[in-house]
Amino acid sequence: MKTSISLEEAQATLLTLVRPVAQGQVPLLAATGRVLGRDIQSGVNLPVFSKSPLDGYALQAKDSEQAKPSQPVTLTVIEEVRAGYVPRNKVMAGTAIKVMTGAPVPEGADEIVKFEDVTREGNSIKLFSPVTPGKNVIRAGEDVIQGETIAPGGMVVTPPLVGLLAAIGVAAVPVFEKVRIAILSTGDELLDPSRDLLPGKIYNSNLHSLGAYCLQLGTAPVDMGIVPDETTAIAARISQALQASDLVITTGGVSVGDYDVVPAALTQLGAELIFWKLDMKPGSPVIAASYNNKLIIGLSGNPAAALITFDLLVVPLIKKMMGLEKQFPLKVSAILTENFNKSSQQRRFLRARVQRDKAMNYVKLTGEQSNGVLKSMIDCNALIDVPAGSGPLLAGQEVSAVVLGHEPGGFL
Amino acid sequence: MKTSISLEEAQATLLTLVRPVAQGQVPLLAATGRVLGRDIQSGVNLPVFSKSPLDGYALQAKDSEQAKPSQPVTLTVIEEVRAGYVPRNKVMAGTAIKVMTGAPVPEGADEIVKFEDVTREGNSIKLFSPVTPGKNVIRAGEDVIQGETIAPGGMVVTPPLVGLLAAIGVAAVPVFEKVRIAILSTGDELLDPSRDLLPGKIYNSNLHSLGAYCLQLGTAPVDMGIVPDETTAIAARISQALQASDLVITTGGVSVGDYDVVPAALTQLGAELIFWKLDMKPGSPVIAASYNNKLIIGLSGNPAAALITFDLLVVPLIKKMMGLEKQFPLKVSAILTENFNKSSQQRRFLRARVQRDKAMNYVKLTGEQSNGVLKSMIDCNALIDVPAGSGPLLAGQEVSAVVLGHEPGGFL
């Protein structure tokens, strides 16, 4: 087992060990936000038939060639067709069919002239100028040609895509199943926030923050609860979690103290340990193991450290399991707008907020950076990546930042 | 009733007519992505008690004042405390209590010294240098002070906020209820995509694309189905929709043709017509009405026009109803990277994709711009706002664009 490896080595190692989950079919609306399982080819032309974009008269353009204001051409209106109905007649020389918006273009007709551009008297219309064939016609296949790929597998199903799928008659959408992510928190000190607080105890936040993050990603969190600091109990709960999920996340018990029991539980379970500890702050105490081709990732019990390692290390794995094509967060350069007075012996990620101002990205810290502090995560939309061996950071300096996905709409 | 008003006048008029919906309480995980109903003040300090950030010994710093490598100070270890438990003893001069990460700082102690920085023999430890009081202590209230506002009403509940709410013991979160949005599509030509296609018919996409958009926004779409082009049937269905929802959206039947029956249905219902038609392309045929303090907005039946007017006109109303503070989309300037050869007599919104390249926004069109064409909505993350009276647009020209919210993560 490797120890104290870089984030990038950890990511690369774990990414080779996960695969997209299985696929299924869901109804159109339920596909919203899900990941498309495969390329979708259209089985039809869209529109299926040529149709009228306006309320008017379908005619043969050549009939209008001689039309002038002083010498109008007269056509006989032989039928009227609304959207949703099929013309019974063909348009032949000297005739026209009244069509409403969306009605099929009748056979024989090659142009639709607007109501406003003709005069109607009884069963006939008068044309006062020539019309261009095909100008006012929505042609079959204008939007999508039969056989055309309308969306690639791995794409998130957006509302317009739901519309396009509906339009080509796809009522059941092939999507990747929801990735099931079991989350369990270890620690004798932990209480669920629904309970009364007791001396020496704290409310567990990790189950909830990570569960919420899983929901936001479009996965299915499986709440495996709180387990006391006992190796056998943790091993048993991890074993249950493996049954119930595609990926197991634990929090707490991964440092090197007397009661850091998750590594011991993984060993007892017979899981293969992959690495222990990342060379970064916060979130250094991470352990990764695999059991029957499923990963178990043990994160720090410190709330901010747990969220940050989840963001940096676990989210790319989850995105691969979800079937998403794009797994890594955006990295940007930004101008730091305040000092950070500590040196960084070890690589360090600082909670921060990036904002664009016209041509430039600016980034400020979002408050206290201690491992346990959650408040500075609230406004955080990015993590400044401070290389090992850096001195204090100065306002005005250019820094590198990883953009996070907590906030709907991203950073704008 | 006004006609052919500007988008901005329509927005301003309708925004005065909607209010945020009622509030309720939901469990922590279910609050993810919902809108916080009110400011949340913490009822506790966070952490609740001062605690140890590491595995070490709690002591009185003044005991260490004389400690040197050549003359270590010896302290007696009188107890051991793990996270989750409460010390039974006080630390007094000459004593220390072994504490594990997360354990409360025992009374009388003002500093924790790391395991690695002392030597232990039997029941005593040796200190080799002075320690600084308070350096290795996580102080009660360091993250959040009792009474502090941790999040403002109107904020979207993000995963870190779920964590912070859990940490302060909030198990039921006050959020705005889900806005219920009834959607119905009118048109004799429409079939649901689950049906077999028939001659002259088309698959209805608007119910599905708008429903998906409602889901993505975090609202509850109410599917009111397809109604034929009959005034009485439409009036009856709108009446049912009003019962079942906070806002009613219809598609189709809002132009000025013989069969544009939605305005007639609204009149028959006794709804107050607010305006008809917007001075823009696409999506000009929009009608807005109110009935018993609920809005009914009739959008074009053209799939792209329906989505675009939903985006520009309806989404800000929905965001106000959701309780969100920020209701309007971002507007950006961008350099057009291709020509658009048509002149625009009327204000026009073009489907486009904005991308940032370092200092600059660039925008390209996403394909065919006809009212009915859905394909160009798929890659669309912005609408170029072309003012009335514009000539053709040229590559290299600066244009204004409204950024849309279809895509998770926004435009990056």
From TrEMBL, chains A, B:
Transmembrane segments: none annotated. It catalyses: adenylyl-molybdopterin + molybdate = Mo-molybdopterin + AMP + H(+). Keywords: Magnesium, Metal-binding, Molybdenum, Molybdenum cofactor biosynthesis, Transferase. One of its GO terms (molecular function) is molybdopterin molybdotransferase activity. NCBIfam families: Glp_gephyrin, molyb_syn. Catalyzes the insertion of molybdate into adenylated molybdopterin with the concomitant release of AMP. This is Molybdopterin molybdenumtransferase. It comes from Sporomusa termitida.
